[in-house]
Design a protein that fits this description.
Length: 294
């Protein structure tokens, strides 16, 4: 009898282990986007893979995109939580051919209180842009900035998805503002931190120096200056190079911006040498909605 019970117990344990192992092997993780070949996308494969990926874990598939890049370094601002159950999201995406991505831009969705996200995501800009980043005014309207002329779009009402577009302009003239971040403060002043992809503003300081911009009329007009300047500097003057700082320049997407009430803060990477062997994280703060900085 004891031998029989022992045999049954061993058999049950073995069957349980086999069943557990078999159930684990049922889940196959697959990429959400499957290109059939470079330059195009197999629509059937994309849909099938996205559905399979969605079964792996919790969450909601908002978009199937052929363009997956949204930063070079630090995280951007892609989600705005209103704190009342409503949420806005934006991401850089494309539904076009891999390698050219002709429709690349900011894709937006909004979830109202007790509702679901509006799907599919809708493209904000009419032209090809990138690096869409998100904030919101105190009255709820979303604000999105993207590079490609440094375009700022303001929604008509909270979650509507009807946009008024403004081009902020280049600073300095002839430059290429790239990889922006945006935030709105408690007075609905808009603040941008951005840098340049290829433009080098100073001959004796490295490239990709952070540029700060602000708008006091909800994105219609803008004023810009370089950040981390010495006291009394003009907007176009170089940053403070005391002890050799900024000689190596900054870096792409290596900055972050936040605001609370009338205060605005920017943190940014700065290097002493072109090889990035000696670096600092710099912080600048404004207590008057970006009018002055320390």
């Amino acid at each position: 009898m004891r031998k029989t019970l022992t045999a049954v117990l061993v058999l049950c344990v073995a069957m349980g282990a086999f069943a557990a192992d078999k159930s684990m092997k049922k889940v196959k993780r697959v990429p959400a986007v499957g290109p059939s070949y470079a330059g195009a996308v197999n629509a059937a494969a994309v849909g099938k893979n996205a559905q399979a990926a969605a079964r792996v874990g919790p969450g909601l598939v908002l978009m199937e995109t052929t363009y997956d890049f949204m930063t070079n370094n630090s995280m951007g601002r892609h989600v705005h939580n209103y704190g009342d159950g409503s949420i806005s999201v934006v991401r850089t995406g494309s539904e076009g051919a891999i390698g050219t991505w002709p429709d690349r831009g900011s894709f937006f969705s909004f979830r109202d209180i007790g509702a679901n996200f509006s799907l599919p995501l809708s493209k904000v800009e009419t032209n090809r842009v990138g690096w869409g980043n998100l904030s919101a005014l105190t009255t709820g309207e979303n604000v999105i900035v993207a590079h490609g002329g440094l375009q700022v779009n303001v929604d008509a009402l909270k979650g509507f998805g009807i946009w008024t577009s403004n081009i902020t302009g280049n600073f300095p003239t002839g430059s290429d503002p790239t990889w922006p971040r945006i935030v709105a403060d408690g007075a609905d002043v808009l603040h941008i931190v951005v840098t340049h992809s290829t433009f080098v503003p100073f001959t004796d300081v490295g490239s990709q120096i952070p540029v700060y911009g602000r708008s006091t009329d909800k994105g219609i007009t803008w004023e810009f200056r370089f950040l981390f300047q010495p006291p009394g500097a003009a907007p176009g003057d170089r940053p403070d190079t005391t002890n050799g700082l900024w000689i190596g320049g900054g870096d792409a997407d290596a900055y972050s911006i936040a605001a609370f009430g009338n205060k605005v803060g920017v943190a940014a990477f700065a290097s002493y040498d072109a090889g990035f062997n000696s670096n600092e994280i710099m912080f600048a703060e404004s207590s008057d909605n970006g009018a002055t900085w320390t």
